[in-house]
Amino acid sequence: GESVGLHLPTLSVQEGDNSIINCAYSNSASDYFIWYKQESGKGPQFIIDIRSNMDKRQGQRVTVLLNKTVKHLSLQIAATQPGDSAVYFCAEPFSGGYNKLIFGAGTRLAVHP
Amino acid sequence: NAGVTQTPKFRVLKTGQSMTLLCAQDMNHEYMYWYRQDPGMGLRLIHYSVGEGTTAKGEVPDGYNVSRLKKQNFLLGLESAAPSQTSVYFCASSRPGTAFDYGYTFGSGTRLTVV
């Protein structure tokens, strides 16, 4: 499958810069949030997640920040590389359990050399 | 490689035709899902299954049917395809618990065009 999302908002950054991708979520009762990366022609891949009782979580070159007051999530990518070019989605649990997820619309990250 | 395999990768259907999308996983996951992805929108849940022989409706189930006769396979059927079903379809699987603890494994998608 090829990537979709021709009408997604796009964030353009220079290689080596830091990137910040934002997401607004809907359910104040969600107890965790996940960020996925989708490269062209591939399915989404897990990047990092965060529980609702945390404000910040760091991974390798990525940091997720959670602001429950305004129901906002952000993904920060340090020293952005060409391989980071992809569509990024946030996701939160769907009601009713069974690991069902609701996905945001996504943001396309374009990294320029 | 272990993971989720979707077939076919591409398909063009005429309005009114039927077809079945196949999803196979070799990770012994209990839960399986079908999502669709449309331009400018996030993935939306069509149907899901929490075990062999079980299926349930998701957010956008109309026009689709599913079956889970074997634990490793989850089939998505379109009985009478409509142009509104043009989309990219993703299958995913997970273990019981939360997606936070175990995560999803996604297939690479099926691009379906209905003309």
Notes on the protein architecture:
The complex is a heterodimer of chains A (113) and B (115). Helices cover 0% and strands 50% of the residues of chain A. Chain A has strands at residues 10-14, 19-24, 32-38, 45-51, 56-58, 62-67, 72-77, 86-93, 101-103, 107-112. By secondary structure, chain B is mainly β. Helix content of chain B is 3%, strand content 48%. Chain B contains 1 helix and 11 strands; from the N terminus they run E-E-E-E-E-E-E-E-E-H-E-E. Chain B has one helix at 99-102, and strands at residues 4-7, 10-13, 19-25, 31-37, 44-49, 56-57, 64-67, 73-78, 87-94, 105-106, 110-114. In chain B, the strands form 2 sheets. In chain B, strands 2, 4, 5, 6, 9, 10 and 11 form a 7-stranded mixed beta sheet that branches. Chain B has a 4-stranded antiparallel beta sheet with strand order 1-3-8-7, with no helix packed on it. In chain B, strand 4 (31-37) and strand 5 (44-49) form a beta hairpin. The longest helix of chain B is centred in the last third of the chain and has 4 residues, at 99-102. Chain B is globular and about 40 Å long. Chain B starts with a strand and ends with a strand. The model of chain B has no long low-confidence stretch (mean pLDDT 94). The interface between A and B is large, with 31 and 41 residues.
Q: What is the count of β-strands of chain B?
A: 11
Q: Major sheet of chain B: size, sense and barrel closure?
A: 7 strands, mixed
State the distance separating the first and last CA atoms of chain B. 34 Å
Q: Biggest sheet of chain A, in brief? A: 6 strands, mixed
The portion of residues forming beta strands of chain B comes to over 45%
Work out the helicity level of chain A. Answer: under 10%
Give the rounded overall mean pLDDT of chain A.
90
Unreliable stretches covering 5 or more consecutive residues of chain B: none
State the order of secondary-structure elements of chain A, H for helix, E for strand: EEEEEEEEEE
**Structural class by helix and strand composition of chain A:** mainly beta
Strand content of chain A: over 45%
Question: Tell me, what's the shape of chain B?
Answer: globular
